[in-house]
Amino acid sequence: MTKRAKEVIETADVVIASSLYQEFLRDDGTLLSEAETDEDGIAVREDDTAARAEGDREDGFEQEIVRSTMGRQIELARAAFDHVREGKDVAHVSGGDPSVYGKSDLVFKMAAEDDATDIPIEIVPGLTAALGGSANVGAPLCNDFCTVSLSDKWRGWDEIEEKLRAAAISDFVIVLYNCWRNYEKAVEIVREERTDDAYVAIVNDAGRADAGRNGESQHITTLGEAADHDDKVSGMGTSLIIGNHETETWSNDDRTYLVTPRGGRDVDDF
Q1: According to DSSP H, which parts of 143-223 are helical?
Q2: 269 pLDDT exceeds 70?
């Protein structure tokens, strides 16, 4: 989470977030604890830092915390517009980065449908799993890469398969999102176009430490063996980083890293 995202959430009059994200935000103090929040989701913030960040606020103000679920996203987007029209600041929380398989597209679609041209919208970036996971395992994204979501909720599997095959043939480093669906099928498709000894990193809950579903972890394997590691794939918090033909490993006394060089140059050429 960026500093800007933390400030926006701390100073919002209304925060819309799922139970899981609320748990993350309470763990690091961005939201007040459940003990400080009444049964209607109202907490009284007396944080001088938050007040100063807002600029024109008193030291204390009421903050409403609304639980979001998949089935209520449209309803809550409309409710957010209503709150803004009442003069309130609203933070609608998305996991990772809201513009990378997040909720920002829904906000804009609902704004268009409701002709909400009077509503100011700010998209506050976060750190998406591709970047967080890459940092956890070294430097696998230092050359061209792409991301592919394996969720067939919005796209048919035929389209996903076509994108996977094109990415594999083009020698992109590939980052797979939503590995709780179809990750074994995805690995088999990439194997048809890439050697089995290509390196793969399985990354869970990048950047979330112990606050994630199963805790932050990473495991390096190969494409030929990636589908054999079901025990390492924990669900929506899992991403797979599939290296290209140049991706290599580097090890020190502590651990092994993945590195994809920017090009075929020697260090002396930098």
Answers
A1: 157-169, 183-191
A2: no
Are 144 and 169 in contact by the 8 Å Cβ rule? The answer is: no
The 238-242 sheet, strands edge to edge: 145-149, 173-177, 238-242, 199-204, 217-222
Q: How far apart are the first and last CA of the chain?
A: 32
For the stretch 130-169, pLDDT in tens is 999 999 999 999 999 999 999 988 889 999 999 999 999 9
Whether the pTM exceeds 0.70: the reply is yes
Residue 213's nearest CA partner among 256, 179, 260 is: 179
Count of alpha carbons within 13 angstroms of residue 241, beta-carbon side: 32
Buried b (16+ CB within 10 A) or exposed e, 42-71: ebebebeebbeebeeeeeebebbbbebeee
Least trusted range by pLDDT, from 178-182, 207-211, 217-221 = 207-211
Picking from 33, 47, 20, the residue whose alpha carbon sits closest to that of residue 12 is: 47
